[in-house]
Each structure stands twice: as structure tokens, then as C-alpha cells.
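re: ur question from yesterday

yeah so i grabbed the chain u mentioned. its 370 aa long if i counted rite. heres the sequnce exactly as i have it in my notes:
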Amino acid sequence: MPVEKKRPRGLKGSAVAKANKKTKTEEQPTSTTELPENAQTVVIDKVVEEGDEVGEAAALFESALEKLETDPSAALPLLRGTIHESDRILRNHDSKEPLPALFYYTYGAALYELGRLTEDEEFEPYLDAAEERLNEGLALKDTELHNKIHLALAKIWLAKAASAVSEGDQSIPELSLKALKSLDEALESSEIPSKTVVELADIVQNHGDLYESLESRSKFRIWAEDALEKVLKDEPANAEALSGLGYCKLSFANYLLDNIDEANEQEEKTELTEDEEKAYKAILESKKYFEKAKEELVKVNKVSPQILSDLAEAYLNEANLVLKEEEQSAIYKKAVENIKEANALIEEKKLEFILPEALTSFLEEFEAEE
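ran it thru and got these C-alpha cells back, copy pasting raw so excuse formatting
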């Protein structure tokens, strides 16, 4: 039985938090020196030359980045360890020769990542410290690390600019424009791993979601879409890029739907408005990318609640814009299937992922009316 048409508006409305944060934790330190001297010792699974303390810290950070993809909580001790070791190396350094750029890159990038895992009010001190370390590394003019440092700085500038975006002022902060310029230069001057490009596109897209102005949002969305399309040109089966592009399209559709004047909507619609048509087209595009991403993830047994949630949202928004009741009902059922699949996966693997409230509410309403 079809349920009342309700757009899951605002499913991505936590963009202010999501733009710069991966997962909130109970992490509290506001300075690197607060880390205890007996910080947790972590086994490094990288090959590092004996006695190379900078290399060990860098390897520890690499391990943290790998953990961030699957288990942010497990990455916390690795990031703390990286910062603790970097702080110790810096305090004990008494040579006239500066520490290598790798040291400052590792230190700064680790501060940024740890900041992303903390509560919002704790982020700014991490950003300031991270930027300072990265600039120190940049001053050493290491050609091998030049682009990596610039990419890391661009992330920090976008995070800092996020706090400057307000309802009253929808102009794009200079830091945001500076970040995009830095990203463009880095991507043009060297081969950046596709994994990094996808991550950057996600950060840029989510930054764009902070703006209420379509013109401002579009600048970041289009940048992200272009970057992801370049990845897919070389790697058409890249599930992360497919999912990212799907989210870009869905974000655009959600914006259009959120700004439709519901007071003017008819009881029984016979045709879509111009903005609804645009949203519908974007939703179909997002669905195409999400379905392809899920298909690729199924092949390698890596389907996640996130892709199922995104796909369910796309189906739900599509159904809300379909005028024929029978067709609408069939699409609603596809949304339900993906929500249930996500719930089953969360329960089976005991994941901490929480489905958007709009999806769980829709499922309850749908099942109650069957």
C-alpha cells in the first residue's frame, strides 16, 4: 500500500558537521602537549629503517589513515600516537639542521585528522596547529612533498572557511577560493591517487552544502563532479567515485526540493513544476550512480549501510515525484528493500552506522500501512 508522499528533506542537513568531521568521539585534548608520556604503544606494520624516528611517525600516521576508512575509533590511538611521537621528536631536536618536511607533513596532517574526529568546538585549535606545522614543512621546499602539503592545507582552509559561512552572509570566503585554487594547481601538476581525489571531492562537495545560495553551492558541487568524472574516466568501476557522484546529484536535488514552496502545491498534482523536473532528473542520475556503486561493491562483498542508505533516499525522492500511483508504489518498495538490507547489515556486522531518521520513519509508516 502506498504511503503518504513525504520527501525525506534534510537527510543531508547535517552538512555543517559532516563537511569537516568524519565521526564524533569523546576526544577532548586541545593541545598536543596534553598527551600522556605513556601514550598507548602501537605496533607499526610498515617497514621503517631502524632508528628513523620520523619514518616511524610517518608509518604510524599511514596506519591511522588506513583505519580511518573502516573504523575511526581504532584510528584514534594511532593518531594520538603520531602526534605524541611528533611532539617528542620536536622537543628533543637540538640540531641546527631543520627536521625534514616529512616530519612537518606528518605532524600537521595528523593534527587535522584528529581534529576531524573531535567535537566541533575543539576543531579550531587543531586546525591552527596543523596549519602552522604544514607551513613549516612547505618552507623547506621539498619537491616530493610539495603537492601533498598543499592538498593538506587546502583541507584545513575549507574547514576554517566553514565557520565563516553564515545565514546572513552567503558570499564565499576567501579561504574557500584559496583552497580550490590550491587543489586545482596540485591536481594539474602531478598524478594524485584516485582515492585521494575522491576524498577531496567529498570534502569540497560537503563544504558546498553549507551554503544556502544555489550559486555558491554550485561552485563546489561542479568542482567535485568534475573531479569524480575524471576518476571514472580512467576507473569506470570505482565504487567510491560512483557513490560520490551520486551524492553530488542527490544533494542538488535535495536543495531544489527543500526550496519548493509547499503552500503552493496542489492536492492532486497532474504535472511537476520546473524545479521538480530538475530535481527529478538529478535524482534519476544519482540513482544510476548509486546502483552502479552498489553493483561494484557486491562483486567484492563490500556493500555498506551508507550506499544502501543513499540508494534508499534516491528511490524515496524519486517516488515522491512520480505521479502515477502504481509506479510510485513499486519504487517505494525498492526504497524499503534497501532500508531493510541496511538494517540487516548493521545488525549482522554490529556496525555503529545509524540510518537517517527520515528513512527509519518512512519504513515504520510503510509497514504500518501495508
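noticed a couple things. Confidence is low (pLDDT under 50) at residues 1-41. also The chain is about 65% helix and 0% strand.
anyway ttyl
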